[in-house]
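Exercise 7.
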Amino acid sequence: MMPNSSSYFSKKKADCTISNKDKEVPLIKASSNGLLEVVSLLIEGGADKNVQDRNGNTPLHLAVQRNDTEMVELLIANKVDMEIKNGIQDTPLISAVWLGFKEVTRLLIEGGANKSAGNRDNNT
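Solution. The predicted structure, written as tokens, is:
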């Protein structure tokens, strides 16, 4: 019988901070590849849900850039910080608006993202 994946993950105490040559931790890789269940397990296992990659992108930024509504919903439900700015000083909401992703924009606003936060050019 296959063990429950979340209990198996918890018992193994996997290192969620290990990174590859590009300094990407498992949560960054999973979110950038749309691996919803893996992201959920990593967060449940204690991964830093606001971790940033070398470009300053959080898992939420990466989900927004992929127009991945399910991932955005999961991350919002796990109370990620929606106001972290990436390397070009964009919040996930600013990215969603600039990319024209209406559903993701709606999810972020309904989730409590600051509509008046500006980027480095003071665009809101």
